[in-house]
Amino acid sequence: MKAISIDMGGSHVKLAVVENASILATDEISVDYGAGLRSVLPVFKTIIDKMLSHLGMRPEDCVGLAMGFCAMVDRTTGKVVSTNGKFDDATGIDLPAWCQTEFGIPFGLENDARMALLGEWYAGAAKGVDDVVMITLGTGIGGAAMAGGKLFRTKQVQGGTVGGHIPVLFTGRQCTCGAVGCMEAEAAGWSLPLVAKEWPGIEHSRLSTVERVDFRSVFEFAREGDAIAAAIRDRCLHVWAVGTVGLIHMYGPERVIIGGGVMRSADVIIPYIQEYVRKFSWTPSGTVLIVPASLGNDAGLLGAIPLLDGLH
Amino acid sequence: MKAISIDMGGSHVKLAVVENASILATDEISVDYGAGLRSVLPVFKTIIDKMLSHLGMRPEDCVGLAMGFCAMVDRTTGKVVSTNGKFDDATGIDLPAWCQTEFGIPFGLENDARMALLGEWYAGAAKGVDDVVMITLGTGIGGAAMAGGKLFRTKQVQGGTVGGHIPVLFTGRQCTCGAVGCMEAEAAGWSLPLVAKEWPGIEHSRLSTVERVDFRSVFEFAREGDAIAAAIRDRCLHVWAVGTVGLIHMYGPERVIIGGGVMRSADVIIPYIQEYVRKFSWTPSGTVLIVPASLGNDAGLLGAIPLLDGLH
What we know:
The structure is a homodimer of 312-residue chains. With 312 residues, the first copy, chain A, is an alpha/beta fold.
């Protein structure tokens, strides 16, 4: 079974042609998400046509086009329902119609965090595990849960997709979602520069010399002995660990998968969260295993087949 | 359909004979939960026999005995798996065997928060609502969720039953569950005296004159103009509201039901949480309705029939 797959992250878009759990061709573009989705759709079309042509395939060789989107979406209508500062024009775009016009094949839309979990469940770190939570640490923090091998959903579009918006510190920072002190507001790519800016003594850290503080610089400088970077890194680890315990308490998973770009520092992140979860979560069935996503940036792309097969 | 129903709260036990959504007979006893469950089982037997006899019924007229228990339980085996300082001997008691010996009928065991939700869904404030979360504010804070008309469960016993242990303040108070800053650790019956004790200026409040600070005294003194009591009440309201937003983000319900003894002050609690949820939760499908449990202390008792009917 083949499909076209588009993974719309907060700042990068990955496109692929997949066959079951394999990626036949892939490409990635940086996008200015503030500029909106409409202006990049023609770019998607060009890239997809090129990939298909390179593979000697036509669009109709694919069962459909699956898109993972960093927003709340309505699976049943293929509409983006609510965005959070990224591709805000998407709610006004008829994506199924776009897909029909450009490729003539069915369109499947899902939240990007759910797509990543579907991918990991189908072909990665959650294979064979039916009660599982996935957290994707990135510009925002995505979250998705599966119980009994089915994605957790409710009729409300947000049902089970806003794991990053679990509270961790109600005296904390205003979140873009409207709430206060969400895990994402305290330790995600977008909030990190704000956290760093206010950190006491930040002027003594190399972080004050970078244009935009990101997880890469925080983890790198921390490794190199920058005490402020290390303190900020440790607070991020703490916030993620607290959020993970909360998600474990809420969803009762057997395993938690952690993905996202910052997982290039998985050697620091996974042991910290695993130890915190062992110490601080209430799980009489046994300590929940914390594992890195194994498909890296391909997880969302590989959610395409389980999404389009109609079972999810 | 008739059943025997026992609702084991943190400090009170309610017993009843129910017929569908009606309570035919009921009784309530105070128990010292520290003294354990084994010593009160004979009391249960006496009370149940008396109720049945009064109704002219025999145990075998009932489809079973349903028990809601303030702990993590294994529905499939009828065993209490993990307690949290209440009836700690229960994990070593074979309750199905006790029920068989004393009454000769099937035994159904469920977490008390799930039982209360089942009751409200079957006969109360959640009737006809299939995506719903219930929070029970009491000695602890119970939580349960239903999605698509089914109780949220996973294979792990804690799956979806520990809503009170959603984090709200990771710099906060040690919780009895092992985590830090859970909603329950910040604003439940057991933690309230600890919060009050450390409150700046508590010696100027009437709360310093009561033997044990409870929600009744906090809400009553606050109404009467005690500024410290009002401040403590407001912090409890804030904590519950934050936790409610978190539960909404996690479970995507259409409605949140709030129950528990403190709901005698529902006139203060419901509007506060409703307004906070309206302002601070991310729910593009529309503001989630916050409603008081309508069955009061009978909710758990009325979960008996849906529990025993085999569909949940």
